[in-house]
User: Fold DUF2164 domain-containing protein from Clostridium oryzae.
Amino acid sequence: MKPKNKIVITDEKKKEMISSIKEYFLDDRDEEIGDLAAGMILNFIIDELAPEFYNQGVFDSYKYMNERIEDLLSIQKY
Assistant:
């Protein structure tokens, strides 16, 4: 059973991300890493870092929607 709040990524997207990680290591660090190492890095990012980015997106959306709701109140008739 998957944890309730885990960020889920499709297998296709995961393969693309692993490829991007491998490309980064090769191009920017001049290191060649395999699928396993890149997958472990991706899993670390998903488990440890991605929730912070997700939560920031939720908070930003919340602020945006609250500002739009305030705008809606401005059309009231008195």
